[in-house]
Amino acid sequence: MTVSPIGREIDRVDGPLKVTGSAPYAADYRPEGLVYAYLVQATVGRGTVRGMDVSRAEAAPGVIAVFTPFHPLPLKSPSGESGENYSALQDTAVRFRGQIIGLVVADTFERARDAAALVSADYTVTPSRTSLADAGPGVPQGLVQKLAPGVSSIDAALASSPVTITTSVSQHAHHHIAMEPHATTAVWVDDQLTVYCGAQSPQRAAATIAARLGVEPAKVRLICRYTGGGFGQRSPVWNEALLCAAAARALRRPVKLVLSREQVFTAIGHRAAVRQTIRLGAEADGRLRALSHDSDGELPAAGGWQMMPGRDTSAVAYRTPNIRIDQRLVTLDTPPTWSMRAPAEAPGMFALETAMDELAVRTGVDPVELRLRNYATEDPVEGHPFSSKYLDECYRVGAERFGWSRRTALPRSQTDGDWLIGMGMASALYPAWRQPASARARFRDDGRVAVASATSDVGTGAFTMLAVVGADELGLPVSSIAAEVGDSALPPGGVGAYGSSVTTSTVPAVQAACRAAVKALVQSAVDNPRSPFAGLAPATVRYRQGRIEANGRSVDFRTLLRTMGVPHVEAVSTSAPDKSASQYKFHCFGAHFCEVRVHRLTGEPRVNRFTSVFDVGRVVNAKAARGQLTGAIIWGIGHALLEADPIEPDGRFAAASMADYLVPVHADTPEIDVHWLDRPDPHISEFGARGLGEIGLVSSAAAIGNAVFNATGIRVHDLPITIDKLL
Amino acid sequence: MRLNVTVNGEPRQAEDVWPGESLLYVLRERLGLPGSKNACEQGECGSCTVYLDGTPVCACLVAAGQAEGREVRTVEGLAEGEALDRVQQSFVDAGAVQCGFCTPGLVVAAHDLLARVPEPTDPEIREALAGNLCRCTGYEKILDAVRLAARR
Amino acid sequence: MREYRFERPGTVTEAVRRSGSDTAYLAGGTTLVDLMKLEVMTPGRVLDINRLPLRGLDATGGGLRIGALERMTDVAADPRVRLGYPMLSQALELSASGQLRNMASIGGNLLQRTRCGYFRDVSMPCNKRQPGSGCPAIRGENRMHAVLGTSDSCVATHPSDLAVALAALDARVQLQGRDGVRTVNLCDFYLLPADTPHLEHDLRPGELVTGVIVPRLDWAQRSIYLKIRDRQSYEFALSSAAVAIRREGDTIVEARVAVGGMGTRPWRLPAVERALAGRPATSNTYAAAATATVDGTRPLRHNAFKPELMQRTLIRALLELEQTR
């Protein structure tokens, strides 16, 4: 009897390839005749390229071509997509500092890089708008408001509240820092293009490339079996990959374009800078009467992702009769923005949970108790019940595991030698999202079952998820499943690896495909004249753990396929959410508890330990889940304490390198106790998984900030919380 | 120029190498060993860590000319035949691999740590691997993997 | 990277003879290769000196002589350094990552260039890189920049941890040039930017750092290098202090104090040393002495906290040193 692998600690099926360096990433391909490209980027913040001198570059050793707005590679304009709203090299406008204004191709990478440095450009410069603070309130984009009967405005509701809190927070641009810099290897064979390029949604990316190059969608195949991190920045296709494919077409030979780390900071989107103000009105016992969340988010003129930090956070988190979410966008001449892991939820919940901590301090109510007093069982704005919510249990279990009762509410009251010790907590939530998805299951005559879906494993564990779910459904060991993702040529309907939605959406599709493949196998067994089951009624034949059985005979599918002379039998299935789902609000929940230390003299804030408890529905693979949740919590350390890229008046990012933009290192890692409640969501799917790739990041920064306040009595509103703010 | 270098125990020659190319570039683009990864090119991330004459270095900052006549061992050269090295196996077992891009460099760095310090303390592990950035795992499972490998 | 000729001189004399205005010496490569990729440095010829006989750590006759090509890792681990001059060992270990310490040489460490982001970005003006072009750091993002020794031309922080500890130890730098060998005090070896920030060292054309001499200082056994940074590990100093104390009973007899992350060069603080000498080893003494650090500081918009942080770093270093017996 095979034990179900669901929820167990399953090793990654792609692990052995990755630890031996044999998993090929986009830059690891070396097709015959390969040449190398390098970008030239604008060095002014806004204006026009008047002219470019490429003569020195063209004369440099090994140079094959230099493309500029004056000698462009043809690309179509983007249509109706979010993200960059222009195609590179098609005009002379400079929209931001770092915009691509040239592409140099040479026989080696170093020669291309050097030649790129020899290209000079002459600009007409116009002043840049880069400061979110100076640009003032932005254009309202998403107003959410619900007022109790008889209440005239949110201001009136706040004014009549016995206790009010106003908290303004800000954060600079953030960068994804996926370990793999953006890379593309483009190969044309006749009119067929194969692009090796990390992508979160291979089919959507292939379609975009086809559209922008002006070729039939069927002519483009994108392969991204192994991708060195996504976090949002690989969900669209950026101009660099399009230029690489276009250069390969123009030069009739394979081209590889690998961005330098510094180029990734500007050529690829970042998380928008955002300023937020939370206003809370409450009773003396902490019960909320009113919640107002205003935000001004950076929206580049060159296009980008809209920063809406209140919609899925403050509008959902707590029970309150009056609520107003005003999300404004400020147009700036900055590099494009894009979604970055918990894109709006991380900043939004930092603001809200900081304000809630201030309310706890003001009212003297314990922070956990304050949240329980404002516990929402339904969507506070629209009134839909949550499909499944055990956040109260997260608080309880988390507080117990962490030892929350040992916390003292008074700041600066706990020390360890010269270190001030503080504890803080925050609650987390993240929308759960199930998309229609498709998958293919294929019984093969080598004795394995290939389970495929055209999604992407950007480190998340999608390969292993397919293997685990396929194995469970088919009663086979995980090792008998060959998982396939990361190829646009797989059956249509793979979902993108974003919105923590791959598992939620794909598990039902895999289950359906496996069931359909079993049915097809049985049908084949009764139809095929060489089959020992030929002529039987399908209903009398059954599939069990890889074997076909009837009339006392039992044959494994490998033998059956070989006997029948059929290499494989397969089925493709699509699965979509039920219509009944629309009556529920689907969210994941969690509670973070954190202990920090801050040196009493030199002010370094360091995280000692984290306990986080999550309610994310059913978990497929405990090992992968723990990795995702832990990794995301560490992102919270970056969010709270390290990560920031200020933009200068001329549009230059001040910290555009790995030495200047700090992300956590091993030594920053605290003890992390990650736990989840195993409660399948009964409404999202039969399986009940709700997705967990991002929720770990939501509010972990707030828990740290709240703990820093508890340690020091200092509330830092402008992230990151650094030494200079704690002296 | 022609570069002579011993890679994973085998004498190799790369032709037409320009001395300014990095050892990483030569390994990846000229010798067909893409296991070592290029992620920052300035020694900030450790993804390109290889042994040079038995010492772990960032291959991105070694000029090709510097490697002439020396011995290089990459992530591709750690396993004995089909069996994974204990560090590699421990990374798989502990769940220390996610996107896998930092993994080759981390495996080499951890391999070196355990060769020098068979039973490292947690602070020793954290500090020894501080030059290897990972954006996925949160590092916790990497620490577990090194502890596990030390026990094997 | 700009194409260059790669040469491997066989002797120090030959290296010095071959060196010219368009050459760069290549040791560990962690600075040079990095800056050549960015085209901040574009030498026409690179002289690989790694096989020259400039290794060795010698402790005969008291003090230390460290060959310029010794690697940071090896020097940090040497028991004579670890026990006799803990601040040196600590400064090395708190620098960079293990991989970089395995590569980087002592001579190269002393000559490493600033991490100022404007210096490293060839699309920006920088008086150090391109004399007369201007200094965007003075009005720009300057949280990490210097508050001591700055000028209207340059506010770039000196990046070396090792040099701070060596400054406290009165170290000397051995040089070999076309006109023979000479030795200069490490503190004099580093030039203030003034209006010539492109001139960083007292190095004559072709001159090569061949070694570092650390004079014997028995009481350096009781020394510390404390480094304060935003990230727990693997980052340049926001602030650092190298401190050695000679005590008799509860009285401080002599002190050596230098700070990093503050100056355009490693910064020795004789006023603080004087303020400590002859006083009881108490936190009051430390706090009073630390106030002497702020003389002459010139804070910028984003680093106004640095003088305060410097005082606190120093006090903490003195307190932590007290606890190491």
What do these coordinates show?
The complex is a heterotrimer of chains A (727), B (152) and C (325). Chain A has 16 helices and 29 strands. Chain A has 727 residues and is α+β, with helices and mostly antiparallel strands. Chain A has a seven-stranded mixed sheet with strand order 3-6-1-13-10-11-12, with helices on both faces. Chain B is an alpha+beta fold. Chain B folds into two domains: 3-76, Beta-grasp domain (Ubiquitin-like (UB roll), Roll); 86-151, DNA polymerase, domain 1. In chain B, 33% of the residues lie in helices and 14% in strands. Chain B is built from five helices and five strands; from the N terminus they run ββαβββαααα. Chain B has helices at 23-30, 86-94, 103-116, 122-128, 140-151; strands spanning 3-7, 10-14, 49-52, 55-58, 71-73. Chain B has a five-stranded mixed sheet, sandwiched between helices. In chain B, α2 crosses α5. The model of chain B has no long low-confidence stretch (mean pLDDT 96). Chain C is of the alpha+beta class and 325 residues long. Chains in contact: A-B, A-C, B-C. At the A-B interface, α1, α3 and α15 of A face α1, α2, α3, α4 and α5 of B.
* Bulk shape of chain A: globular
Q: In percent, how helical is the residue content of chain C?
A: 25-40%
| Helix-strand string of chain C | EHEHEEEHHHHHHEEHEEEEEHHH
CATH superfamily descriptor of the largest domain in chain A = Aldehyde oxidase/xanthine dehydrogenase, molybdopterin binding domain
Summarize the structure.
Chain A is an alpha+beta fold and 727 residues long.
